[in-house]
User: Fold this.
Amino acid sequence: MTAPPHRLPHPDTPESRARWLHDIGGLSVTEIGWRLGLPPDRVQALLEQRPSVAVPVPDAAEGARLIRRLARRLRDRFGLGTVCIALMPPDQTDPVPMIAAAAARHLVRVLQARSAPGIIGLSHGRTIAAMVAQLPEMRIGQLRFVSLLGELTFGHAAYPHAVMHQIAQRLGAQAFPLPTALYASTPEEAADLLRQPMLRRVAEMALQAEVWVVGIGRGAPENQLHQFGMIGTEDLAEIVGLGAACEILGRFFDAEGRELPSALAARTLAPAAPDFLRRRVIGLAGGTDKVVALHAALAGHLLQDLVTDSRTAVALLDEEEQAEFAALLR
Assistant:
């Protein structure tokens, strides 16, 4: 694994951003206007201007080919089923909006497929919440969403139950939250909680879900679970000592994607690591700070589908391969 690639210099003007999205991303005038917050006629005028700074970029067709080739490279490298790569324009620093939009489109395709799932498990996090906000209003009969883990945070934007309610409204589906904490105090308490009829029903439904949509967190101590106070000092020290590289559904994995045999694992109210391999898991993550975590998840074959941004996708490659996709890093 190599260090994330450096961003290349680029002009930072509305004209250059519009031209980048058009020439590299192949986006339409309307789509560019939505990204930049500009009316279509203003975008058209920017594209018709003579470039103020010479920026050698491939045309739209070449940009699309680069994205497709990069997706194929990642599929082959990590044995993935589907890779969706959201283009990051030069001025964008936060990958979440781009990944959320790509993830929403991918989920709609999954729901509209002939073999569409009847039950979908949903994780937590800012990217998941942003994806739900991007979903169109649809009506899909007999669709059920189930929460894959207990309460995460009091922050409303990523609060699992609020997200479950929102996705149910948008898609006309049923939603089943898991109304308990993510971590129990003891393994015995965790077992007792899962014996309660309501919690047992939701936990069993999570294992019946054909598709899971999950966020991917960093290893401790940077993980948000610690930042939100869900993980105590002793548990944090143990996880750090064991070499945590990534977190999914409150469970921590090493650099090879193997779950860490920690005391916390026995108290986690979420599906166990072997259950990841029995269904289609769609993982959402991006940003150079998530490269290590993504490598771990991919090494452990914990994901079948990946939705990420173009810079992170390039960073997942070996250093000698990254130069091939340098145009996506401007």
Observations:
- The longest strand covers residues 82-86.
- The first helix runs from residue 14 to 23.
- The radius of gyration is 21 Å.
- Residues 65-329 form a domain with the Rossmann fold fold (CATH 3.40.50.1360).
